[in-house]
Amino acid sequence: STPDDPSIECECYDKLNILEKGYTEVTACKSTKADCSDGEIKKISDEIVDTEDAQKVLTDTTQDITKRDQLSVIIRHVHIVRNVNQEPTHFKVKETFLGFYELKDHSAEGMTNQILTLLKEAHIPIEKCYRQGYDGAYIMSGVYSGVQTRIKQIQPNAEYVHCNSHNLNLVINDCVNGSHDILSFYATLQNIYLFFGNSIKRWDLLSIFTGESKVTLKKLNPTRWSGRLQSLTAVKVRFMDVLKALTELIFKSTKKEEREEALQIKKKMGPFDFVFICVFLFKVMCEVNYASKTLQKQEIDLEEATEVLKHVCKKLNYIRNSYEQIKLEAEELARKWDIETNFQSKRQPVKKRHFDELASDHGFQN
């Protein structure tokens, strides 16, 4: 985790070179624990005890290269600044990275016990905990037996807060999973990248057509949907270059499998349906990316976050009702790419009729 407010001061971050190198390395995890000394942790606990309002616990897990889960623990707390007479003058919100700890029990009960033990060893009172910050996994956020619920049973004021940007990503993921056409479109984008990216020769061939352009094919982000905008933009900008490279491979490649794979990808990119979805998703993902990036800004507050989400909802509703305009843009782009501007007609499934049946099937227009 990194600070999401400019007023937050970070302890230990300056010392941790792991943020600039592979933090999943075992040596990095060990050095992190060494850097966060007992003296610094005691300083934090003293500051927490010194204030009425206290801390928020932030945790997450990641695997190191030995495939062991490491639990990262961060404490965000209020620090009261006092003058020489020990009178409070103002306060600062500080964020401290305590370290990585090997996670041995992956159950909600086991993770709760480990978090409570770590806080106890650091002399940080759980009674001062007013917020919890985890991901949206059921083990962490479950309302019946998740970590956040178990900690609330001990400290009822420790409200669980889920990251707005992460929530947005999950909403997009659920929406897209309901559309076969969009899932198929993104699968094609991934196949395009893998086809050229897995071969130096094919990548060099594509580079001949793209020239010195800075826009290159990007790998599809499997988790963050806002990050897929880069993959989409790359294919949209380099569409003709990709088709030219595929065509050359279809006619000149000496490898049968390579020719067949290039032909299959070209067939996926050729129809007007692909162009239309490309234009439509580009508009949608631009708005989603704006919201995601804004929600991660350091200076954002709750009011601005609410306004950003309202604005994006309004824009998405506008896009949803702008079918004809999007279709015109797609047709203009298709003509530029020398693609027919007609949607593919799908064969209507019909039920086999028996000789004594009088009624015939009727296909309804979509």
What would your notes on this structure say?
This protein is α/β, with parallel strands linked by helices. It contains 14 helices and six strands. The chain has helices at residues 26-35, 38-49, 108-121, 138-141, 147-154, 164-176, 180-197, 200-210, 228-237, 239-252, 256-269, 272-295, 302-320, 323-336; strands spanning 8-11, 55-63, 69-82, 88-102, 129-134, 159-162. Strands 1-4-3-2-5-6 form a six-stranded mixed sheet. A hairpin with a 5-residue loop joins β3 (69-82) and β4 (88-102). α6 runs antiparallel to α12 (272-295) and α12 packs antiparallel against α13 (302-320). The longest helix has 24 residues, at 272-295. Residues 1-8 and 10-35 have low confidence and may be disordered.
Short key terms for the protein model shown above:
14 helices, single chain, alpha/beta, 14% strand, 6-stranded mixed beta sheet, 366 residues
The share of residues in helices is 40-55%
Describe the global form: elongated
Strand order of the largest sheet: 1-4-3-2-5-6
End-to-end Cα distance: 47 Å
Mean pLDDT: 80
Query: What ranges have pLDDT less than 50 throughout 5 or more consecutive residues?
Result: 1-8, 10-35
Whole-angstrom Rg: 27 Å
Bin the strand percentage. Answer: 5-15%
Q: What's the number of helices?
A: 14
Task: Output the helix-strand order.
Answer: EHHEEEHEHHEHHHHHHHHH
Number of strands: 6
Class from helix and strand fractions:
alpha/beta
